[in-house]
Amino acid sequence: MIHYVLFSLRTRLLLLVLLAGVPSVGLMLLTAVEQRRSAEAAVERDALRLVRQTVAAQERLIEEGRLLLVSLSRVPVVRSGTPDECRALLADVLQQFPHYFNLSVVRPSGDTYCSGRPLVAANIADRPFFQDVVRTQTFVVSDFVLGRATGRPNLALAHPVLDGAGQLNGVLVGGFELTEMSDLVGEAACQPDQPSLLSIVRVSC
What CATH number does the domain containing 179 carry? Predict the structure, then answer.
């Protein structure tokens, strides 16, 4: 009988201890769940912020490319200079913008008139972005395509070159290789307040 009483007392004490600890364990579990939810929400916010910064950086890079091509399209050497004069200017600009794999002026026929880098002769009249520029005479951004000279994926920016009468004289094309553009966008996304790339170029019109 005494053994039973002692056993019952021990059982009750153990139950009391367990019951006393239940709120603490529950609070710990609840805290852990909340911390996990908070961590997941933070990861989602960081991922969304990175996506937004990356998109903004890509848009900024393309806009800076557009402004560069607009400026170059107004330079007399590009509009009506000799191939050698045009080539020398584009080569000099490429020294300041090494992230472009090339800058070139292409005639409406699709044949390259001058190129900042040595280029394997290739007609691009069949490229959709080139056809769009010829048809609309506005700035165009291509889809990612395989470069015929390099065999690597690239993105082309293209802007019309007009003569003194406002007629299409050529198309100015600037190309980014996919890996180079990804690196630039990644750097710009991590440093959204970096100076504009255009701040380092000086083109005389």
Answer: 3.30.450.20
